[in-house]
Amino acid sequence: MDLIRITAFAGDIKSLINTVFVPVLFAIAFLYFVYGVYKYFILGADSEGERETGRKFVLWSVIGFAVILSVWGLVAIVLSTFGLGAGGAAPSYPTL
User: Fold this and answer.
1) What is the CA angle 76-77-80, rounded to 5?
2) pLDDT tens across 63-82, in order?
């Protein structure tokens, strides 16, 4: 009985991560990226300082994308290792 509850709880956590946390983090990283591009091309058209800060925004947003994908993959590996996932299948893509 307790194993069923633990498995259901793990499924709920997995669902929460895939349907809430990952899409929100991706949206934040994407907005950060768009803001960096805006700062680089629009605001920084005549100022090297603004271009440099825009470049940093873009760099950190790409690093954020890589970290989010890496953590998402590690969660999938841990879930499949302990038998809490969907039989070793890849996690579903995040949806809103």
Assistant:
1) 85
2) 989 998 888 888 778 877 87
